[in-house]
Design goal:
The chain has about 350 residues and is an alpha/beta fold. It has nine helices and 14 strands. A hairpin with a 4-residue loop joins β6 (about 145) and β7. α1 packs antiparallel against α6, α2 crosses α6 and α3 (about 75-85) packs parallel to α4 (about 100-110). It is globular.
Length: about 350
């Protein structure tokens, strides 16, 4: 038995794997594989239509927003956001709360001025900065909602008249959000939406085409919106697998239902970390991520023995990011509570053996 706590391309429901594998051989009885079907075929246009519809339904996307199915990962959005939103001479406000927000602001500096309104870098990103001011004349405010490497999450967003842009790669669809509070939401699909290769962008229509720049077509939100995400060949298989996963999420009761499960899973694991004398959590408790539970050993010499112990019991992907060490259990939507319980039991057993 394997328990997949991987943080990157991650766990998806078994039924999604089964349905996707069947489509690889024969998609919707067309006699063609989903890997070879034309993205202009009516059968695949129906896939795009349903995927967009489910995204809007599950996230309650209001009128006045476009939902885009792009490629290039969230990392390309580090560039597309300032290209599309930051006019010459303007300044963008950025919250530096982790490795990915740091990379995002680095890219933004190529297109205009950047004001880092707050940072937790000096504390190794163990907390989410609060009580900062966003200049009223900022073109937009950018934040990363969940920090996969350091294990922190923004549970409240600032109230501001400035458009909020958020990288939600690792907690999109894991909790309820009010899309109307944001100007742009973007997310790599490979955490809670589907396999790698697809990037979701939700952009307020009134923000498109306002930078004053002549943009390359592939980097222009409006071009993709006008072409219903079919300006070029999209990530066909990733979109289809995401559709299957979104159907699964809807059948479970949608985002509100999965949020309750995610709270239960994370609370159980954090309770063991706080109870067990061999482990501790490095992040501020109020900022602890529900998606990426990071922890370390009280005695660093026990890290390698515990990793080996856990791997022997089927735990996959719990080694911490190379930049911070320790351990990280990513407990995305499709990971069941039983897997979290298996990790808790492993931690308990290891503590008993090393008392």
């Amino acid at each position: 038995m394997k328990y997949n706590f991987g943080a990157g391309p991650c766990i998806l429901p078994q039924e999604v794997f089964k349905q996707a594998s069947e489509a690889v051989l024969n998609f919707n009885n067309t006699g063609l594989s989903i890997l070879e079907i034309s993205h202009r075929a009516p059968e695949f246009e129906a896939v795009v239509d349903e995927t967009l519809s489910l995204i809007k339904e599950l996230l309650n996307v209001p009128e006045g927003y476009s939902v885009l199915l792009l490629q290039g990962g969230a990392s390309l959005q580090f560039t597309m956001v300032p290209m599309n939103l930051l006019a010459e001479g303007q300044t963008a406000a950025y919250l530096d709360s982790g490795a990915w927000s740091s990379k995002a602001l680095k890219e933004a500096k190529l297109f205009g001025n950047v004001n880092v309104v707050a940072s937790s870098k000096d504390a190794n990103y163990t907390f989410v900065p609060k009580n900062f001011e966003i200049p009223a004349d900022a073109a937009y405010f950018h934040c990363t909602s969940n920090n996969t490497i350091f294990g922190t999450e923004l549970f409240t967003f600032p109230k501001t008249s400035v458009p909020i842009v958020s990288d939600m790669s690792s907690d999109i669809f894991s909790r309820e959000i009010n899309v109307a509070d944001f100007g742009v939401i973007y997310a790599g699909a490979q955490k809670n939406m589907g396999p790698a290769g697809l990037t979701l962008v939700i952009v307020k229509d009134e923000l498109m085409g306002k930078s004053g720049r002549k943009l390359p077509s592939m980097l222009d939100y409006k071009v993709h919106a006008d072409n219903k995400s079919l300006y070029n060949t999209p990530a066909v298989f990733s979109i289809y697998a995401s559709l299957l996963n979104l159907r699964w999420l809807k059948a479970k009761g949608g985002v509100s239902a999965i949020e309750k499960e995610n709270i239960e899973k994370s609370n159980a694991l954090y309770a063991e970390i706080d109870r067990n004398p061999l482990f501790k959590g490095p992040c501020n408790k109020e900022d602890r991520s529900r998606m990426n539970v990071c922890f370390v050993m009280e005695n660093p010499e026990l890290e390698k023995p515990f990793l080996k112990f856990a791997q022997e019991r089927g735990m996959v992907g719990i080694k911490g990011h190379r930049s911070v060490g320790g351990f990280r259990a990513s407990i995305y939507n499709a990971l069941p509570l039983s897997s979290v319980q298996a990790l808790i039991d492993t931690m308990k057993e290891f503590a008993e053996n090393n008392a």
